[in-house]
Each structure stands twice: as C-alpha cells, then as structure tokens.
Write a structure and sequence with these properties.
Blueprint: H1 12-26, H2 38-44, H3 51-63, E1 67-70, E2 74-77
Antiparallel strand pairs: 1-2
Helix pairs in contact: 1-3
C-alpha cells in the first residue's frame, strides 16, 4: 500500500510520484514493465487520492523521462531514476 500524507506540505501527486520513482529504482517495477494503472493506484492508496492527482503524478514522471505511455497498453517504466548527485561529478 502506498502511504500518502494528506497533511504534508508536499503535494499528494509529488508524494505518489516519489513512491513510484522509488519502486522503479528498487526494481519492484523493472524497466520495460507496466506501472500500476490509475485504478490500481487508486486502490493502493486506499482511495485517498483522486484519479486527477494520480494522472498528475504520472505526468511528472513522464516529464522526467522515467515512464512513457503506450496507447492502449498502459504506462511503462522506461528508465531508472537518476540521482541528482550524478549531475555534478564531472566538473573538472
């Protein structure tokens, strides 16, 4: 089950995107595999969040290049999330 803190200053869609990003990073959702559908994510959050919020989380991950929608098939993990620290290592 995905825990969402409704009282947090962090928006719910950002919390959900973080949970999905972590699942992909840990290999629970391997690259090339479908992430849970909007309905499945709604159930996993105990119905705490709306489908619009779920869609916003998926759109955030798409903008980051971590997931990609495939017409009629679903949304798939296409890349491992990168660590922000990796971006600054080649400064020489």
């Amino acid at each position: 089950m995905i825990e969402i803190d409704r009282e947090s200053i962090t928006p719910m869609y950002v919390q959900l995107a973080s949970a999905l990003r972590e699942r992909i990073r840990r290999g629970e959702i391997p690259v090339g595999r479908r992430i849970p559908s909007q309905h499945e994510l709604e159930l996993e959050t105990g119905g705490q969040i709306s489908r619009r919020t779920i869609k916003s989380a998926i759109e955030l991950l798409q903008a980051e290049g971590i997931v990609q929608g495939v017409q009629g098939k679903g949304v798939f993990a296409v890349a491992l999330p990168s660590d922000a620290s990796d971006d600054n290592e080649s400064d020489a």
